[in-house]
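Q: Structure tokens for this one, please.
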Amino acid sequence: MFLKVLALQTEIAWEDKQENFLRIQKQLHSFMDEDLVLLPETFATGFTMNPKKMEEFPMQETETFLQNLSSQTGALVGGGWIEKNTNGNPFNTLSFFSPNEIICRYRKIH
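A: Here is the predicted structure, written as tokens:
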């Protein structure tokens, strides 16, 4: 048995989450039998110099997109995003979802 992994790179629409979600869905349309799909760090926004503008709490737009993508494909899906930190600068967070639940949420520490 083999594990099919897709590391997806896409051209980022700067600070435009909805456009980036659409681009990823279009690319994934031809890859529907992967076991693991990996999206880039800050795939939804790009590396913005204004992270407070793009930050969000868990299970808002970006994590909901990851969860839905996992449900649609049946694959484990992981991607990085900008998580709101109520105590300071936003977190650079990586989240992984299975079709039914969040598996982990990792905050980069440097």
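A few notes: Residues 52 and 90 are 7 Å apart (CA to CA). The radius of gyration is 13 Å.
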